[in-house]
Amino acid sequence: MALVMDREELAEFLDEAFPQVKGDFEIDALSEEELVVRLKVEDRHLRPGGTVSGPNMFALADVGIYMAILARIGRVALAVTTNASIDFMRKPVAGADLIAKIRVLKLGRVLAVGEALLFSEGDDRPVARSSMTYSIPPR
C-alpha cells in the first residue's frame, strides 16, 4: 500500500490533532510494509508493580494503527476505531520503552484493519498483540 504521508508529516499531524498525547509517541520507522512506533515510557505510564499499564499499552496500539492507516489515506482526523481487541501476553520490562510494530492488513473505502505487536525495547518476545478496525469517513 503506497504511502501518502511520511514520518514527519504523521508526527506533525498527531501533535496538531491530539495535543493531549504530544511527546508520548515517537515514530521509529515507516515503510509500505510496517510502521514502528514507541511509547516513551515515563513514571506516569506505570501501574503499581512498576510495569506499563494496560491502558497505555492499548493507547500505543491504537495510536500506532491509526497512524499507519493515515500514512496511507492522508489527514483524515475523523477515522475512528470501531473494533478493538488486545491480548496481554507478558509483563513489559521495567524501565524500557514499548515498541509497536504495526501492519495494515486491509485498507478499503470504508474500513481499515490493522494489527500491532508490542515489545519491550531490547526484548524480542511480544508483551501484547492487538487487532483493530477503523471506520473511514466519506471524502
Feature tags:
globular; 139 residues; alpha+beta; 8 strands; six-stranded antiparallel β-sheet
Q: In words, what does this structure look like?
A:
This protein is of the alpha+beta class and 139 residues long. It has two helices and eight strands; from the N terminus they run αββββαββββ. The strands form two sheets. A six-stranded antiparallel β-sheet has the order 1-2-6-7-8-5, with helices on one face. The longest helix has 20 residues, at 54-73. The model has no long low-confidence stretch (mean pLDDT 94).
Quick rundown:
Keywords: Hydrolase. The protein has helices at 7-17, 54-73, and strands at 25-30, 35-39, 46-47, 51-52, 80-88, 98-107, 111-120, 126-135.
Which helices and strands appear, and what pairs or packs with what?
Layout: H1 7-17, E1 25-30, E2 35-39, E3 46-47, E4 51-52, H2 54-73, E5 80-88, E6 98-107, E7 111-120, E8 126-135
Antiparallel strand pairs: 1-2, 2-6, 3-4, 5-8, 6-7, 7-8
| Inertia-based shape | globular
Structural class: alpha+beta
- Report the major sheet: 6 strands, antiparallel
Low-confidence segments: none
- Count of strand segments: 8
Approximately how much helix is present in the residues? 10-25%
**Strands in their spatial order, largest beta sheet:** 1-2-6-7-8-5
Taking Cα atoms only, what radius of gyration do you get, to the nearest Å? 14 Å
Classify the beta-strand content into a percent band.
Answer: 35-45%
